[in-house]
Amino acid sequence: MQHSVFSSDILNFWCAVCGRGYKNKCTLNRHLRFECNKEPQFECNICDYKAKQKSTLKAHMIKHSREQERAGGHRISSQKTC
Ligand SMILES: [Zn+2]
Ligand SMILES: [Zn+2]
């Protein structure tokens, strides 16, 4: 049995731009590529809200669905096309 030498709580790499800490360089690079100083790439299709992370947008969308419930919802009547 080998003990892995992960020191999981120690952050070794710091983003020079926003100051966030990361455990390894890969994660930091990913942050720099996809998160840091990036335009939000997840757009709400109901309003003009934009999120940098999918989970953030998801949380935002829940808000919309609650609003719709409160408003009674737009009933989409299934129209026959012929
Ligand atoms: Zn950053
Ligand atoms: Zn929205």
Automatic annotation (TrEMBL):
Presence of the UniProt keyword Oxidoreductase in the record: no
Lineage: superkingdom: Eukaryota
This protein's GO CC annotations: nucleus
Swiss-Prot/TrEMBL keywords: Metal-binding, Zinc, Zinc-finger
Keyword ATP-binding among UniProt keywords: no
Domain C2H2-type positions: 13-40, 42-69
MF terms (GO), sorted A to Z: zinc ion binding
Name of the protein in its database record: C2H2-type domain-containing protein
UniProt source species: Laodelphax striatellus (Small brown planthopper)
Taxonomic lineage of the native organism: Eukaryota, Metazoa, Ecdysozoa, Arthropoda, Hexapoda
